[in-house]
């Protein structure tokens, strides 16, 4: 690769290969990972060093809400549940102590779940045994997370949720809770005494935890995920509500079991609940995306990058984000990419330098287009004390382009720019060259006429709201 093209790549722009067919020069994107720079995430909270992910829910106004456990042993001022919100523009709101159990005979146990209930209120659920009463417990907010109710025991009375992560989702209008308990995975549909409560069929796990929960937007079915140490261990997915589905073991190396947080994501529209997974750490750098009950699709790889942590996030228009992290030559990298609308192929993989001594979890939400990324871990610093906890960063999706050049004679050249997002045409993007700009049509195509001579290079810039800019050097 030439030095000029290398500079383009380091700025997160495409490295381009060129061929000539019958006098028509066509410049194509070579799919590869682009170094997008260094992430500078914002510390949200010193919560358990970020070992477990926060729970997320986005309300109808576009605000992203988070809840997570706090504990005085982690340097927090209270045992309980904290909450905060992130605006559609990425502005982080104040940290709220949604629940303080310092003087209430106990503390939450594990990580709370969070969901928007059908009426629009926020509900957070968690395990724990204050005053010896086993949950699950719930707190609610009807003002967008500014104030929260006192804790209420929302358990069915037939099976307790004493520990573990208690994620919450809404399946066809009914709240669904899931937790690792009592030798397996416990499901509860609805709140309060008499709510249906049962164990999933894989109840021989004998130590199951790090549970995840997501909803299939097409069917409303809730799918649970968890890590198990039964047998050789492993990660499992299973439909939990409204009916029990078949258990599906993820095709990951046997060392992954309890201790690995299972991050799940459903699409914002269309069928499917998804989980990412790596190949064997020692032999492959490839990532794949598993659809519960529907096989898997290749995500891609970054040369030399073996995944230590990974996750998925719901995107817009049916898309799914995949995020993973590791090291290349001792330097931390966070990789991210987003699928097309059909979840069959992916954008070019972005590489973001990250300076972390320990990175445990990657999760987030991309329903607005950009990925609101939540990172759990402990940054590495040369001096001073690093704060371990939950961090936030925003990643914009990637564009791709293909440019054909036609010599019109008289020093004029016609550029045909096709702009895509993981293969989907992007309408309304702006393609610019030599001061001329045109919008792409519904097929993702814009046409520009430029002046020059054969062999001359022209810079083409492509921009679109919500995407990272794309710049390429085109040979006439």
What does this structure look like?
The protein has 476 residues and is mainly β. Among the domains are: 3-30 and 400-475, Immunoglobulin-like (Sandwich), CATH 2.60.40; 33-51 and 263-398, Neuraminidase (6 Propeller). Helix content is 2%, strand content 50%. The chain is built from 1 helix and 39 strands. Strands 1, 2, 32, 33, 34 and 37 form a 6-stranded antiparallel β-sheet that branches. A 5-stranded mixed β-sheet has the order 3-28-27-26-25, with no helix packed on it.
Descriptive terms for the model:
1 helix, Neuraminidase, single chain, disordered N terminus, 476 residues, six-stranded antiparallel sheet, five-stranded mixed sheet
State the shape.
elongated
- The CATH class of the domain at 33-51 and 263-398 is Mainly Beta
**Annotated CATH architecture of the domain at 33-51 and 263-398:** 6 Propeller
Low-confidence stretches: 1-32
Helix vs. strand class: mainly beta
Residues in helix, %: under 10%
Can you give me a brief rundown of this structure?
This protein is an all-beta fold. Helices cover 2% and strands 50% of the residues. The longest helix has 8 residues, at 3-10.
Tell me the layout of helices and strands.
Blueprint: H1 3-10, E1 16-21, E2 24-29, E3 34-38, E4 42-45, E5 55-58, E6 64-70, E7 80-86, E8 96-100, E9 108-116, E10 122-128, E11 137-141, E12 152-153, E13 168-171, E14 174-181, E15 184-189, E16 197-199, E17 208-215, E18 222-228, E19 234-241, E20 247-249, E21 265-266, E22 273-278, E23 286-291, E24 296-301, E25 309-314, E26 320-328, E27 331-338, E28 350-353, E29 356-365, E30 371-379, E31 389-395, E32 400-409, E33 412-421, E34 424-425, E35 430-433, E36 436-439, E37 445-451, E38 457-463, E39 470-475
């Amino acid at each position: 690769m030439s030095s000029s093209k290398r500079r383009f790549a380091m700025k997160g722009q495409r490295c381009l290969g060129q061929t000539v067919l019958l006098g028509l020069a066509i410049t194509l994107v070579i799919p590869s990972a682009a170094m997008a720079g260094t992430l500078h995430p914002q510390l949200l909270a010193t919560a358990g060093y970020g070992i477990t992910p926060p729970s997320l829910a986005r309300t109808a106004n576009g605000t992203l809400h988070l809840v997570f456990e706090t504990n005085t042993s982690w340097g927090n001022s209270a045992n309980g549940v904290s909450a905060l919100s992130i605006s559609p523009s990425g502005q982080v709101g104040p940290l709220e102590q949604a629940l303080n159990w310092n003087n209430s005979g106990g503390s939450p146990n594990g990580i709370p779940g969070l969901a928007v209930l059908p009426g629009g209120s926020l509900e957070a659920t968690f395990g724990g045994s204050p005053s010896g009463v086993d949950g699950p417990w719930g707190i609610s907010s009807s003002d967008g997370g500014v104030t929260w109710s006192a804790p209420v025991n929302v358990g069915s009375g037939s099976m307790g949720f004493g520990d573990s992560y208690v994620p919450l989702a809404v399946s066809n209008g009914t709240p669904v809770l899931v937790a690792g308990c009592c030798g397996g995975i416990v499901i509860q549909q609805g709140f309060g005494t008499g709510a249906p409560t049962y164990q999933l069929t894989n109840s021989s796990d004998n130590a199951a935890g790090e549970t995840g929960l997501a909803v299939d937007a097409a069917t409303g079915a809730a799918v649970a995920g968890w890590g198990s140490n039964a047998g050789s261990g492993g990660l499992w997915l299973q439909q939990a509500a409204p009916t029990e589905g078949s258990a599906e073991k993820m095709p990951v190396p046997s060392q992954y079991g309890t201790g690995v947080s299972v991050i799940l994501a459903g699409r914002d529209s269309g069928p499917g609940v998804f989980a990412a997974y790596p190949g064997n750490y020692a032999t492959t750098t490839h990532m794949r995306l598993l659809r519960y009950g529907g096989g898997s699709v290749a995500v891609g790889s970054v040369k030399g990058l073996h995944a230590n942590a990974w996750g998925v996030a719901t995107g817009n228009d049916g898309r799914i984000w995949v995020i993973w992290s590791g090291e290349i030559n001792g330097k931390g990298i966070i990789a991210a990419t987003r699928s097309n609308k059909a979840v069959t192929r992916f954008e070019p993989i972005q590489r973001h330098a990250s300076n972390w001594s320990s990175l445990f979890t990657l999760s987030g939400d991309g329903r607005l287009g950009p990925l609101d990324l939540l990172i759990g871990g402990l940054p590495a610093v040369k001096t001073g004390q690093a704060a371990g906890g939950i961090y936030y960063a925003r990643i914009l999706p990637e564009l791709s382009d293909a440019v054909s050049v036609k010599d019109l004679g008289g020093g004029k050249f016609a550029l045909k720019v096709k702009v895509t997002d993981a293969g989907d045409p992007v309408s309304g993007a702006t393609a610019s060259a030599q001061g001329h700009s045109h919008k792409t049509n519904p097929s993702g195509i814009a046409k520009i006429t430029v002046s020059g001579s054969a062999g001359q290079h022209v810079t083409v810039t492509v921009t679109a709201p919500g995407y990272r800019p794309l710049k390429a050097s085109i040979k006439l």
